[in-house]
Amino acid sequence: MTPRAEAMFHAAEARGHALLGDARTCQAAAGRALTALERAESGTDDDPPWIAHFDAGYLADELAHCHRDLGQGEAAARRATEALAALPESKVRRRGIGLVLLATAQVQMRQVEQACDTGSRAAELLTTVRSSRGAEYLDDLQQRLVPYGDEPAVREFGARLELQAA
Q: Pairing with 16, which of 6, 33, 48, 153 sits 20 to 30 Å away (CA)?
């Protein structure tokens, strides 16, 4: 197995542990993923074509999901920002989902107005592509905003999503 493939598998393991709420084991798997990717990027290019997409930006996205699932908003925002910085503008669906991930981290940090702004940018991108996964992420974001439903930014965000869905 190549180091890049190893990194992807460790990242998947980290995501699973994060979903189970096991921060310690998630962190260990994430560390192994980062180490493997470092080896991949400094080594030879003998990766099979199916793993070529897995780069530092993709790993940052995976780790942002881990931090989000563990309720670690600051770390999730940092990793989501790294992932977005690595994504070309042409990757509209992934950028939209990455923005929703960032918005979710902002909600976790109680930066509600900023989360609504980021979520709106994501929604604009996701309306240009057909993505059930993107819609699921936006639904999740809306659910996370429910406790802040009295705030004007949250009401405006909800109304904007309803208009875009119509």
A: 48
Residue 57 gets which letter from DSSP? Answer: H
How many CB atoms within 10 Å of residue 162? 9
Q: What pLDDT, in 10s, does the model give residues 122-154?
A: 999 998 888 899 999 999 999 999 999 999 999
d(CA 105, CA 6): 27
Q: How many angstroms separate the CA atoms of 133 and 93, rounded? A: 9
Q: What SS3 class is residue 48?
A: coil
In whole angstroms, what is the distance from residue 30 CA to residue 50 CA? 21
Spatial distance between the Cα atoms of 39 and 33, rounded to a whole number of angstroms: 10
What is residue 23's predicted lDDT score, i.e. its pLDDT?
Answer: 97
Of 76, 63, 77, the C-alpha closest to 33 is 63
Check residue 11 and give its pLDDT.
Answer: 98
pLDDT at 45 > cutoff 80: no
Residue 44 confidence (pLDDT) above 80? no
What are 140-145's contacts with CB under 8 Å, separation 24+? 140/100, 140/104, 141/100, 141/103, 141/104, 141/107, 141/115, 144/104, 144/107, 144/108, 145/107, 145/112, 145/115, 145/116, 145/119
At 85, the amino acid letter reads A
